[in-house]
Design brief:
Layout (H helix, E strand, L loop, with lengths): L43 E12 L6 E10 L7 E3 L17 E3 L12 E5 L5 E5 L2 E2 L1 E3 L13 H4 L1 E3 L15 E5 L4 E5 L7 E3 L21 E3 L12 E5 L5 E5 L2 E6 L17 E3 L1 E4 L6 E6 L3 E6 L6 E5 L18 H7 L12 E3 L1 E2 L9 E5 L5 E5 L2 E6 L13 E4 L17 E6 L3
Antiparallel strand pairs: 1-2, 3-9, 4-8, 5-6, 6-7, 10-11, 11-18, 12-16, 12-17, 13-16, 14-15, 15-16, 19-20, 21-26, 21-28, 22-26, 23-25, 24-25, 25-26, 27-28
């Protein structure tokens, strides 16, 4: 059983504070040779409720299904219509009283599955996977999806569908890989596939590390005997007799170090190897994703300093500290805490992750405006901070630092209602 630290920030007051860089980044990162960004600026990811309630094993109550969808910068769900032909909007006249075209900026450019059309009134409308996007006037708050299933199930909440435009052989899929910050090719068990910048000619794609012992970690991803070229996938005959899948001219491998879904621990092992990405999530270039056996993929600054979120303390029967990934926040709670989660003396130890003046909401990233007018990056609606107690890259000394509030009928409540029983610091995880 893990023992939580019940220390206070004052216990480490003498530790040095470090500053976080603030460069605004739209730069290409790992996997860019394969993967466009999953959305343009101003398009966010939100979670909506879908389907009927189901009883989750171990629970005494029904819980409705959840789905991650695209939304605009205000968090309002984006929709597409089955009635729209590919690359054309048929929503005119009275249709526009309910469905509002999702308008792009004048400088919007097509990439990946994203493109634009010019409407009759000259407005530029975003299109995803060939379908124009809209908001619904009935949606007033983040997470609402009143338009999903409207007009005899012809309207749908739009979501990331990286695989729809691909021809994919049997045994290969596309899925979310948290550590890789996007959608990648995966095997039938859900683990990521990697590509190798090696020779795929007659010498049959050498092992990534150039030695037979490499197969202890990197295993060629085999193609079946009857496997044939399909789309951007091909098959190479290796000198060791293995028929190996190749993606965009680069052989595919699995990595035995990946043991839990979401792992991509093969990143950075060899500069010639990277995750076979299909769609990348945006992240500022002042942020990196690192792996840790306990926390899985977690966020750090570009120089390796761990990033933390301040969350409410929750009493849960099953506990809220998973071995991998740590506690997962609730975006609505993060929004309610905002920048007020750390101000005054709190800032002596916790440094907000600064965002530049032109930073904008994008994917899972949003921007908080602090009391002094500066901007701060927030991930999944929680403001991010570095900790003075982390001296070296890789230190995680600020996790599970608690501030408890004593609340009873005899004393005044010491915190806003959204803080509940108090606040604590947790590692910001994927």
């Amino acid at each position: 059983m893990r023992v939580h630290k019940l220390t206070t920030a004052a216990a480490v007051a003498a530790m040095a504070v470090f500053a976080v860089g603030t460069a605004w980044a739209k730069s290409v990162d790992e996997g860019a040779a394969f993967a466009p960004l999953s959305s343009p600026p101003g398009v966010t990811f939100q979670v909506i409720t879908v389907g009927e309630g189901v009883v989750v094993p171990g629970s005494s109550s029904s819980q409705a299904g959840k789905k991650t969808i695209f939304a605009n910068a205000d968090g309002l769900t984006l929709y597409y219509s089955d009635k729209d032909p590919v690359g054309k909007s048929s929503c005119t006249g009275s249709c526009l009283e309910t469905w509002q075209p999702f308008i792009a900026g004048e400088n919007a450019e097509s990439f990946g599955d994203w493109s634009t059309i010019v409407r009759a009134d000259g407005a530029i409308q975003w299109v995803y996977a060939g379908k124009p996007l809209y908001t619904n006037i009935k949606d007033k708050q983040i997470g609402q999806s009143e338009g999903n299933g409207a007009d005899d199930e012809t309207w749908h909440a739009a979501s990331l569908q990286s695989q729809n435009s691909m021809l994919i052989p049997a045994g290969i899929g596309v899925g979310n890989v948290a550590d890789a910050n996007g959608h990648s090719l995966i095997d039938s068990s859900g683990f990521p596939l990697y590509v190798f910048d090696g020779d795929v000619g007659h010498d049959a794609a050498p092992n990534p590390c150039g030695a037979k012992s490499c197969l202890d970690k990197w295993e060629p991803f085999p193609a079946p005997f009857l496997g044939r070229n399909l789309g951007e996938f091909s098959v190479v005959e290796r000198s060791d007799g293995i028929r190996q899948w190749v993606f965009k001219g680069r052989p595919l491998f699995t990595f035995t170090g990946d043991v839990e879904l979401g792992d991509a621990t093969g990143r950075g092992v060899d500069e010639r190897i990277e995750v076979a990405m299909v769609a990348r999530y945006f992240k500022p270039d002042v942020v990196e994703i690192r792996s840790n056996p306990q926390h899985g993929g977690y966020l750090t600054t570009s120089d390796g300093k761990t990033l933390y979120a301040r969350d409410t303390i929750k009493y849960m029967g099953l506990g809220n500290h998973a071995a991998r990934g740590g506690a997962k926040g609730v975006p609505a709670v993060g929004r309610s805490i905002g920048a007020q989660g750390c101000d005054g003396p709190c800032l002596d130890l916790w440094t907000p992750l600064a965002a530049p003046a032109d930073a904008e909401t994008w994917g899972d990233w949003s921007v908080l405006i602090r009391e002094d007018g500066t901007k701060q990056w927030a991930y999944q609606s929680y403001g991010l901070y570095s900790f003075a107690g982390d001296v070296e890259a890789g230190d995680i000394n600020g996790n599970d630092v608690y501030d408890l509030f004593v609340i009873n009928e005899d004393i005044r409540k010491l915190a806003p209602s959204e803080f509940r029983f108090g606040l604590y610091w947790r590692v910001a995880t994927q």
